[in-house]
Amino acid sequence: MKKIKIGMVGGGQGAFIGAVHRNALLMDGLYDFCCGAFSSDATKSKESGKSFGLNESRIYSNYQELFEKESLLPAQERMEAVALVTPNHLHYHPAKLALEYGFHVVLDKPITLSLKEAKQLQKVYERSGKKLMLTHTYTGYPMVKEAKQQVKKGAIGTVRKIYVEYPQGWLSTQLEKKGSKQAQWRTNPETSGLAGAMGDIGTHAFNLAEYISGLQLTQVCADINKVVEGRVLDDDGAVLLKFNNGASGALIATQVAAGEENNLNIRIYGDKGGLVWEHNNPNTLRIKLLDKAEQIYRTGGAMLHPQTNFNTRTPAGHPEGYIEAFANLYRNFAFSINQQHDLVEYPGMEEGIRGMAFIESVIQSGESNLKWTDFKVYDGNNN
Amino acid sequence: MKKIKIGMVGGGQGAFIGAVHRNALLMDGLYDFCCGAFSSDATKSKESGKSFGLNESRIYSNYQELFEKESLLPAQERMEAVALVTPNHLHYHPAKLALEYGFHVVLDKPITLSLKEAKQLQKVYERSGKKLMLTHTYTGYPMVKEAKQQVKKGAIGTVRKIYVEYPQGWLSTQLEKKGSKQAQWRTNPETSGLAGAMGDIGTHAFNLAEYISGLQLTQVCADINKVVEGRVLDDDGAVLLKFNNGASGALIATQVAAGEENNLNIRIYGDKGGLVWEHNNPNTLRIKLLDKAEQIYRTGGAMLHPQTNFNTRTPAGHPEGYIEAFANLYRNFAFSINQQHDLVEYPGMEEGIRGMAFIESVIQSGESNLKWTDFKVYDGNNN
Amino acid sequence: MKKIKIGMVGGGQGAFIGAVHRNALLMDGLYDFCCGAFSSDATKSKESGKSFGLNESRIYSNYQELFEKESLLPAQERMEAVALVTPNHLHYHPAKLALEYGFHVVLDKPITLSLKEAKQLQKVYERSGKKLMLTHTYTGYPMVKEAKQQVKKGAIGTVRKIYVEYPQGWLSTQLEKKGSKQAQWRTNPETSGLAGAMGDIGTHAFNLAEYISGLQLTQVCADINKVVEGRVLDDDGAVLLKFNNGASGALIATQVAAGEENNLNIRIYGDKGGLVWEHNNPNTLRIKLLDKAEQIYRTGGAMLHPQTNFNTRTPAGHPEGYIEAFANLYRNFAFSINQQHDLVEYPGMEEGIRGMAFIESVIQSGESNLKWTDFKVYDGNNN
Amino acid sequence: MKKIKIGMVGGGQGAFIGAVHRNALLMDGLYDFCCGAFSSDATKSKESGKSFGLNESRIYSNYQELFEKESLLPAQERMEAVALVTPNHLHYHPAKLALEYGFHVVLDKPITLSLKEAKQLQKVYERSGKKLMLTHTYTGYPMVKEAKQQVKKGAIGTVRKIYVEYPQGWLSTQLEKKGSKQAQWRTNPETSGLAGAMGDIGTHAFNLAEYISGLQLTQVCADINKVVEGRVLDDDGAVLLKFNNGASGALIATQVAAGEENNLNIRIYGDKGGLVWEHNNPNTLRIKLLDKAEQIYRTGGAMLHPQTNFNTRTPAGHPEGYIEAFANLYRNFAFSINQQHDLVEYPGMEEGIRGMAFIESVIQSGESNLKWTDFKVYDGNNN
Questions:
Q1: Which of A104, C15, C227, D3 can pair with A81 through a Cys bridge, CB separation 3.0 to 4.6 Å?
Q2: In terms of domains, do B103 and B13 share one?
Q3: Over the stretch C36-59, which tens digit does the pLDDT of each residue have?
């Protein structure tokens, strides 16, 4: 398979998620990481790019320059795709511009600062004919793929209950006042948008619930909190959920569960049984059956769906982790760009739109005295 | 210590919880199980009593007869306490009568069919000068005691979040139509009261949350569901919670989580850390600390509170289970009746009243379009 | 069922295992605990007996007096069985005498101080026509019963490998010099016999291996250690094992694994799969299958053997612990004495003899320069 | 840091470990994967190389050609290091030749077919001045690093017991007769050497024990088995261990534990406590302390050694797996070649020599009637 030439916007030295993107795209040898604009500070961008081993001529000062100059290079050299690993307020414009220049786009979630922006981006995207991937990383885990397939084939029967949780503890204190850049942009409405925790991690939990269950959210009832003093965005929340088949559930997203790391987990129950997947033990999928022995499926093990195996690198018992899940996204995206393989699947524009609708509906619900708020992607005027 | 002569109402052969009560009260040799009325069917009562090795003269046909005849026996023979192990609709009258006759009372939760009845019972109880224990079994586990003490001494700081779950799966199908007596009375409003799952297990979860945290519930927002076709009482629900110190949380109680057994668990987070206790692994208490190694405390292990140890029978590594937790309640009750030991503690009238208020507030919230419903024990008229 | 009148030798106030025996025999209401000689100190014996609520006339100063006086009581009052909960050097004589007086006997393991004594006791036992139970507690767990049945029905195929471990840490320091009676008698050859750890816990591990696998040990190769300074008996050891069907394995028994509690566990592998049982999580049996999903069986759950269910008290999800396992032994013994129920099963004389042979063969192997030592119950002279 | 130009011998399409090597070396962008000889079949080598995106001119037909032709390229193009991912019989000659040509070498374990060969390679290596890394992958895990440091700083006191296990189940049937290449070369003495399971996985377990404990093995007593019919090399074994400080232990390595995946785990106990690391849960290190609460350390979490953090890519709660551990080896090797960073550490020649001595001593012990066999690296003649 031809390597895809990829660049990066943001993710300079020291940025957590930039490094993960690089690990993930490099791992399988499917991309040629060739250029980037790694910081709004031109000097830092240069230094970062050099530390990544890039040719200096292809380290740029900003994303506009990156897109323009790369577009002028000969086709066999030119960047084909770009990964935007910037804070939320720097999603919409760079993504729009990249698509307009004809580059495929990889984007962190949430897709934009608002649902309105997301829909505008959708139009640009549709016109562009290019691919767009949104890094809902957790759907890249083999056993998350398997969970979806188990629900699909009826292993747990008709879904009745969905419980999804994403507790973190790292924002339990005012880290944003102690120099943490990660904390600063996430707690600032200008860079993070309407939501804090609900945007940062709530969207992952929401996406995971819809992805595995195959259902769509229809109503929410949210308790949205600003727990740590001085916060203007939510750092905690819990949401009651209603789905389009009548199933109900609950979603928890908090960044003030002191002592928790990144403990995403989901449990889905149907009329025949339930399933459990936990990010702390990501290579295990538990299927609990009514009046039968519980079954444990394992990454690389026997009796798994072809799509699960397509996203697995090692034999059973060789743990695959977060970077592998991330790399699975990039791998699927590469196959998609090269138009290969029928098992290819990754989150994109549609998931981005729904994620923004999630943020807006839970924040609106949080402010409402009424119990239920509709989850709405489009209003009555076809918007 | 003098053995306490105890009788039983209900709990004939084949009744699950009656057998557990007997195991629990017999285990420590603190009670003399001497009499009872085990069924509304006099023949069954006789047979049951005989199978328990009781003297036939003290096996009665109904609770009225039990109380009356026992009260006429000489003091050194006479029953002193009675365990009522009947469905909910047979709590109030037998308990009232027992107290009026001067017997101490052990009662399953919920304490009565309504908050109003509970308050009436409270008056009888207060006049009686007798003891009353409500079998919120889970508070009898050593590591639940330890959890309470850890919160109290500030191990996790000021409590911010409480998540408590009680998923069961046994009512995932219409068992009540397949001859299950356990299912029949629990799904019937006449025998169960206002609530199904919320009364049967939601009250345990609620009690556990207040017990460990030392906080009191102030507001609820409930999604109450009748999932299995034909049910007239809830078999499932989720509740958003607000507590009197500003903490918030969520409570899940469901009997349709197919594949789950009896998976009660609680997580409480403060500003310094969190704690986790799971009924499936009841001898372990996890304390997760912000920026420190997690700590695992174990029943019988080192560094535990005296009250924890008072409720422990074996050295570390010898698992103590459900019957031991139940026996701890009976053991505390016996010490209380004999007025011994300053570590004695068990759930009683107050927990019963609050449990009924929980049921009434979550059912009311479930029917309300407003988000928040006050948790109220007493109305404005001192009732 | 008629209650069995039982007495006790040893197990006065403060003795760990005496209290467990009482909890276990009382729990199910199958025994009438009526008498005992609880200490070699007559005053202590009296005080203990009174604290247990016994009639003073039936608290004795020593076991000889107990047996003699009880044997003279009318049949409907007289003790029928006696539990000997004394250190190892007080097993043989009291057991022999009890059998000769016509009492059924419950005895802690190891059965005697030597294999020779055990065989002498066997002769007395066979002549007596009485029942004898040896408290290999761990075989009383429901999921240990299930494990045996799963092997028997071929779930894991022909057994090839057996790994059994019993790590404890409580003897990691010289507790015997710090006033611990538990440590003192176990580290003293006069009261403990030929072996320390191998007798105290190694015999449990050995018994569990033979019980579940249905195989018999044929050869051992032991590394026997005295780790803590000053010990004259082993406090640690590891043994390579050969079984009569050609299977091999390893047994670990140590009391100096600092930080371990009582972490008995066993894994058995056949040509189709393996099983895992762990005392720290005793209500779970894992069946790992070659090229299939792992299966989790749970106490009280679906699809279990009748014998498993016969030894289960509560529905799935209500943890049963050490005292319940112990009570299962007593319950089976009571059914056996009353000649009821075809599922009845408990460890007895045969297991006692094999346990002594285990101790003698591993200690002999530990002193040998040759790799393999035969496991021999009988020598060539029919002894 | 300058990228290191690396080539590969073996590891064509479909080979498990070759793919892992590529994932691992590519992930961090520290190597330029530029050439290789991927199969003894020149056509297959070409196809594989092209599928990896290599320039055709640098895909060679065999390792001799690879080394010769690369050595003739200009310095700025020429391969600097080579990864040998071939079966055991193709370790010695390619490694020797590579070193003689002046290439750094990455080598799978065991290092050669015999201890004698290993020592010959050592001489070549010492003369070469080049670096050699042996891929004992498991020492690349962050929590294995942490375990070593915890022992070093005395967290568990003086080491007394080491238990290490490596159970796999994949060779439970005659896979080698069903077309599995992985099984074929591992069960064939010509390609695998003196040992089967003991060489393939026993060496990993041995290395892990010495690595974490900081101790050296001095004596072994091995039970070595050929369980599956027709095998001429061991597929199973258990070894009693003695270490140079007097500590003892046991090692289990089996490939016939049907149902097990790759369940390496180690427990080390000192006089103050013990530690547990399990490959199935590799980001957790449990420190069990005598008379204190157990402590749980987690990859990316607080209070870890700088060397642990140096081998960690993501914040706590983002699982790092097998490929990351492998990548850590490559990362340390790259830093070493570029002579940077004082935390750099990786297994090499010394571990290779000791691994061969392990294989030879356990196989010799397996054939001996004596209990103990010395673990010897060098004989009396300075060999």
A1: A104
A2: yes
A3: 999 989 999 999 999 999 999 999
